[in-house]
């Protein structure tokens, strides 16, 4: 599955675009100045995405990759 397919599936499942997840991550303090906050462990972000949005591990990791700057 391509990265874009992951992003499309996430938006279909949650109603949130990758950009909206980035904003939510900023609100939660997971993302600062467009990068993952170094004080935050990736597992914390994954747990948040799984518990609050019902994402599986692979989809949560795709959002983490988006937070890290992946776009394709």
TrEMBL record:
InterPro entries: DUF4287. Pfam families: DUF4287. This is DUF4287 domain-containing protein. It comes from Aquisalinus luteolus.
């Amino acid at each position: 599955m391509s990265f874009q397919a992951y992003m499309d599936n996430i938006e279909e499942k949650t109603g949130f675009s990758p950009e909206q997840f980035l904003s939510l991550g900023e609100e939660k303090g997971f993302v600062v100045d467009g990068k993952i906050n170094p004080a935050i462990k990736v597992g914390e972000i994954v747990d948040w995405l799984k518990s609050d949005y019902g994402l599986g591990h692979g989809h949560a990791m795709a959002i983490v990759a988006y937070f890290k700057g992946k776009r394709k």
